[in-house]
């Protein structure tokens, strides 16, 4: 993916297409295990990400129920978004099982799913269809930027390429959600104040519940003789913050976040520095 692609986020996504890549395109047999020795935090990060990604069927089911009657949205969620999100999870799972074969991925994921699936419900979505699309844009901004960061930080070449490919998919997902947002915003008369409230709320809470739950179950299976404590997750977050300080492209992420506000060039340039500073404080805190 070319430098700056995230920030561009054009209005119209491409037409329906086959996936850009498949699991068979990832050279798992070329994983350089020597570069992964002592990378416990990287293992935790990739394993936790695989749990969240592969659980997209739940998110998709809730969104399909919420957008009942909109066949274009439903068709894309079922045949585009969900398929690619599940592929991301499967690709990350295979990486984990190849790079760290002693980890019982299936058992840890089963524990995660039992807890996390109970937390997902349609009632937790936003108060309008337009604002839920804004929330989806926030999530896709976070995931595309996260995987770009992972690609830049990963010491192992196969993981770098895998993370780059997932990031590119997530940028494409953003484009779809943004286009749907614009359609619903016009129909519902959604104002900037409501959009801003949704952006701030979602940035504050983005993936916090997902990540904490996933990390906990990775940790418990990987370290069965070490009782899990909240401090373990805090240490993991500190590690993410250190990675973000070096590798996270806050400027590109904030441009994507601000796009639903439709501020225009001059206003965008004025708001961007402050918004970037606030995002640095809120993300990976």
What report would you give on this structure?
The structure is a single chain. This protein is an all-alpha fold. The chain has one domain: Ribonucleotide Reductase, subunit A (Orthogonal Bundle). Helix content is 71%, strand content 0%. It contains twelve helices and no strands. The protein has helices at residues 5-8, 40-54, 56-66, 71-99, 105-116, 129-153, 157-188, 192-205, 208-222, 230-247, 250-258, 265-282. Helix 2 runs antiparallel to helix 4 (71-99). The two termini are 28 Å apart.
A few lines on this structure:
The protein is an all-alpha fold and 285 residues long.
Sequence stretches where pLDDT stays below 50 over 5 or more residues: 1-16
CATH architecture term: Orthogonal Bundle
Q: Terminal Cα separation, in Å?
A: 28 Å
Briefly note the CATH topology name.
Ribonucleotide Reductase, subunit A
Mean pLDDT, all residues: 87
The largest β sheet comes out as: none
The total count of strands amounts to: 0
The number of domains is 1
* CATH C-level class: Mainly Alpha
Portion in strands = under 5%
What is the CA-atom radius of gyration, in angstroms?
Answer: 19 Å
């Amino acid at each position: 993916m070319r430098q700056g692609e995230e920030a561009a986020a054009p209005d119209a996504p491409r037409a329906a297409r086959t996936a850009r890549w498949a699991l068979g395109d990832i050279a798992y047999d070329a994983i350089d295990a020597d570069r992964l020795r002592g990378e416990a935090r990287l293992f935790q990060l990739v394993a936790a990400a695989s749990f969240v990604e592969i659980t997209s069927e739940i998110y998709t089911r809730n969104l399909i129920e919420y957008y009942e009657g909109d066949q274009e949205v439903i068709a894309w969620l079922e045949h585009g978004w969900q398929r690619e999100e599940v592929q991301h999870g499967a690709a990350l799972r295979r990486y984990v099982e190849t790079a760290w074969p002693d980890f019982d991925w299936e058992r840890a994921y089963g524990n995660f799913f039992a807890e996390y699936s109970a937390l997902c419900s349609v009632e937790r979505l936003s108060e309008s269809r337009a604002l839920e699309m804004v929330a989806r844009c926030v999530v896709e901004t976070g995931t595309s930027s996260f995987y770009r960061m992972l690609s830049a930080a990963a010491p192992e070449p196969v993981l770098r390429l895998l993370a780059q490919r997932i990031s590119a998919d997530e940028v494409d997902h953003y484009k779809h959600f943004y286009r749907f947002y614009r359609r619903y915003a016009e129909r519902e008369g959604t104002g900037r104040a409501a959009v801003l409230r949704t952006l701030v709320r979602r940035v504050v809470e983005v993936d916090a519940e997902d990540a904490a739950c996933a990390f906990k179950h990775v940790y418990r299976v990987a370290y069965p003789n070490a009782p899990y404590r909240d401090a373990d997750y805090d240490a993991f977050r500190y590690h993410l913050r250190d990675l973000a300080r070096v590798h996270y492209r806050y400027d590109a992420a904030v441009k994507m976040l601000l796009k639903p506000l439709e501020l225009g060039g001059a206003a965008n340039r004025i708001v961007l520095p402050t918004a970037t500073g606030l995002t640095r404080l809120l993300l990976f805190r």
